[in-house]
Write a structure and sequence with these properties.
Elements lengths: L7 H12 L3 E3 L1 H5 L5 H14 L4 E5 L14 H15 L7 E5 L9 H4 L13 H12 L11 H10 L5 H17 L7 H9 L25 H13 L3 E6 L6 H12 L2 E6 L13 H12 L3 E6 L2 H4 L11 H10 L5 E7 L2 H4 L9 E4 L5 H11 L5 H7 L5 H13 L6 H9 L9 H9 L2 H8 L1
Parallel strand pairs: 1-2, 2-3, 4-7, 4-8, 5-6, 6-7
The structure holds adenosine-5'-triphosphate and magnesium ion (MG).
Magnesium ion (MG) binds next to helix 11.
């Protein structure tokens, strides 16, 4: 089981060759109406008995077998029931190795799924896997006459996260065609880049993957935060970090910048979206995300407004719940997966859940120095010191959005227009609440400053 294009069918075929077992594709037969199931299994048993080693009976896309609940045609019902009975007898079916594939394991009828003794998951390849796949297909043994350097393939493997085997093959084909158009059998990196641009990665289509758009240098100020994060990330391959503090202080943006800075993959799960399928009673979806993140590691997974992922159940019990699952992930994240939670909800922050975070970084309102940097970034021509004389309590978001709004209103960005806008921004009463929270939770950045 696993997403399309990850080599499930090919895997079964390879097994048959490696083990020297004949391969019988019975997909069409068992899915057809009035399928002669009894005869089919009788024949398979005969063949298996005669051959010393046995055989592989293969069913592609087993989810295509209807469930007994859905079938209306009595003959088909009979066939399906018989199929299930025959499958049950697989242990007596000596020498018949049944292999089914599916990319929708969760949609499988339980009666069918439980008939299989083993489940093998085919996940999208990691960097090394992608390189191996590319090498096989770029190799001239494939019968073509194109040349690609190993170094370029390595670079391509680096860039092609989320691409499954089938995608990678297509990337190469497109690159070859592109090279050929310019009349060359030598495929250079430009051709490969063309190929990858023209091919969508399968593995991330159904996941909230985001291409990180910012790096540390794109965030104004907060230099100690950046330095601390760098030292954390340079030293370990797994981490569980919380960014907390008042709204609009760049927590969510910093999570993206961490991924961007290191060139890691980035998954953003937004707790604030009520419709989000990632937040809810079931742990299945979050579990899927973590599994995919592991496969595409190094990967940053940001639980934005993490309180929404756990608050619903609140307490620490319920092993099956999302809360329970979140707890276990936070306690032991898979290698190469960096988990960043963000939150601005002071009440939540005091809960027992907090202990799971190795690092807790407080994102306070920007200091005067940070504010100068922010104004300089968003209104480079305006005298920032003058602006601080008007307001010193604005958040990063206040500053960024004020400048955006002025420009979008078609006005000029100057001292006067900014003054008019920022006067009206209400004070953030919540900030005071954090003093208590910091006492209870700690402030990783302050600790870091002290140590330094
Ligand atoms: N350090 C920064 N440098 C430049 N712009 C920033 C910075 N921090 C925040 N911003 C701007 O403010 C916006 C809001 O920041 P962000 O959404 O990351 O805040 P947040 O702390 O996650 O807030 P909330 O608690 O409300 O979710 C960003 O999209 C960006 O435009
Ligand atoms: Mg946020």
């Amino acid at each position: 089981m696993g997403p399309p294009g990850t080599g499930k069918t090919l895997g079964a075929q390879v097994l048959s060759v490696e083990l020297g077992l004949p391969f019988y594709d019975i997909s069409g037969l068992v899915k057809g109406q009035n399928a002669p199931i009894g005869q089919l299994f009788g024949a398979l048993r005969d063949i298996a008995k005669k051959s010393k080693k046995g055989l592989i009976a293969f069913i592609d896309e087993v989810e295509g077998l209807s469930s007994r609940k859905e079938v209306v045609d009595p003959l088909q019902y009979q066939a399906l029931t018989q199929f299930l009975t025959e499958m049950q007898g697989v242990k007596n079916n000596h020498g018949i190795f049944m292999i089914g594939t599916t990319n929708r394991a969760n949609d499988l009828d339980e009666a069918i799924r439980s008939r299989f003794d083993e489940e093998v998951e085919f996940l999208p390849p990691d960097k090394k896997g992608r390189y191996e796949i590319l090498k096989i297909h770029a190799n001239k043994k494939g019968g073509h006459k194109f040349e690609v350097t190993e170094k370029d393939l390595e670079k391509l493997a680096d860039k092609s996260y989320g691409y499954v085997g089938r995608d990678l093959k297509q990337v190469l084909n497109r690159s070859f065609t592109h090279a050929k158009k310019s009349g060359s059998n030598k495929v250079n990196f430009e051709d490969l880049e063309y190929g990858i641009k023209k091919t969508k990665p399968s593995a991330i289509r159904d996941m909230p993957f985001i291409e990180p758009d910012v790096k540390f240098e794109d965030l104004a100020g907060y230099e100690d935060h950046k330095a601390l994060l760098e030292s954390i990330l340079d030293k370990t391959e797994e981490n569980v970090i919380l960014f907390y503090g008042p709204k609009g202080t760049g927590k969510t943006l910093m999570a993206e910048a961490v991924a961007g800075q290191y060139g890691y993959n980035y998954i953003l799960l937004k707790g604030s979206e009520l419709e989000s399928k990632w937040v809810g009673e079931s742990k299945d979806n979050v579990e899927k995300v973590i599994a995919r993140a592991k496969q595409l590691s190094p990967c940053v997974v940001c639980f934005d407004e993490i309180s929404s992922f756990v608050e619903r159940r609140g307490v620490l019990s319920h092993k099956d719940s999302q809360t329970g699952y979140m707890q276990s992930v936070l306690s032991r994240p898979p290698q190469g997966v960096y988990i960043i939670g963000t939150d601005n909800n002071p009440d939540f922050l005091r809960g027992p859940f907090m202990d799971r975070f190795v690092h807790k970084l407080y994102f306070g309102k920007p200091t005067e120095k940070d504010q100068l940097a922010l104004w300089k970034k968003y209104a480079p021509k305006v005298n920032a010191k003058q602006l601080l004389k008007i307001r010193k309590d604005l958040s990063c978001r206040d500053i960024a959005y004020t400048c955006k709004r002025i420009t979008e209103f078609g006005a000029e960005l100057n001292l006067e227009t900014i003054r008019k806008m920022i006067r009206g921004i209400p004070e953030d009463e919540d900030v005071k609440k954090y003093e208590e929270v910091i006492k209870e939770v700690g402030d990783g950045v302050e600790d870091y400053r002290r140590l330094k």
